[in-house]
Specification:
By secondary structure, the chain is of the alpha/beta class. The protein is built from 5 helices and 4 strands; from the N terminus they run βαβαβαβαα. The longest helix has 12 residues.
Amino acid sequence: MARIGVAVIGAGFMGGVHAEALRRAGCEVVGVLGVSDAETTKFAAALGGVKAYRSMKELLDDKAVESVHVGTRTSCTSRWRRRPSRRASTSCARSRWP
């Protein structure tokens, strides 16, 4: 079975927890998106050179991304749910199964 390509939003502690859990579940972490380019680049390197996205658009345009996990603090996640980027990510959801 092919591995599912997953992007993680959040380059802090919870992002790391999500990335580790995803890998243990057999998923492939293909990239991360943090609050700054520096944080994202550092986190991507720590995960083994996965892609460091600079924007939500770049993340959503990447055909390798089949699922997105939000690994941020609850307060950040609440704000994210109200943003247009969330609506964009849910309306652009891709499925590998017909």
